[in-house]
Amino acid sequence: FGSRRVQVAECLLFRAGRVGCGGQPLSMKVTLKYEEAEEKSAHMTLRLTLPQKYINGPTKNVVKLFVDHYNKKHEDAPLDADSLHIKIAGGDHLEADAVVRDDMANGDECFVLGEAARRPAKRVAASAPGMTSPSGTVPGTVSKPPVKDDQGRVRCKRFGCQKMFDPEGEPTECIHHKAPPIFHETAKWWSCCPDRKAYDWEEFMRIPGCETGFCSANPEGQVGQKRFLGGCDVRASSAPVRLDEDAPKDPRVKLNDLRKGIVALGVDSALFDRVLNKLAAETEDLDAVVEKFRARFQSLVTSVTK
Question: pTM for the full model?
């Protein structure tokens, strides 16, 4: 009887989240970006629909798939798959042996990075909180020097600028964003301009900046900020707080209780998390997600009593 309950619960999740009955997603859509090269012509964005072969395998297989595509287009400067790894936008660096289904979700925006990207900046001396140098860097930290092209130019690091400029020459005016971008499911937007959303990378890059200034390789005010934000940042910043004593239970608490119950039945917790994230992205309302689950389980219980 216990195994039957597990099957029923997983089939409910199948109908809600379009995964295979038994817990395995049928496919997974992800976007991979390689932007480590200094020249934009060597950058690449690849949108993939991963079959179960890759979903059930390690992330290094996905990296190799990306590299195979990349090297066909860039034969003069091929990448080495063994020296690269995946980082989820606004999230974690993934180990090569991490299983895709456990650490990635449908709609993820990911970056293909070298091992150097894992290393934090070295701190060599303590400094007063919030203190910055005239160049905009935090005293006591050693940042990687900007890479110059053959004309002695470096890339502007202000959000959304991407211009190449001469740090020793006249100031170069740039139009940029004042806050980092958000990559959530397939949507992309700048956190400072939430009314302009895009679902295509090129369209996203065409969203005009909201501030003007001068190009900088170490922009003041961006030190310590995340370069990208993800779904967890969005949900954390928009979660409502009820102060009245008789407020109904927060939907997050309800969903957490449901998760505990389903896991107690033997259903894979990662499966529930993936379905929850999918429904949350579709409805953008956790109360609506709670109602979807309630209706499914109500229907199941009613059918058993007939």
Answer: 0.39
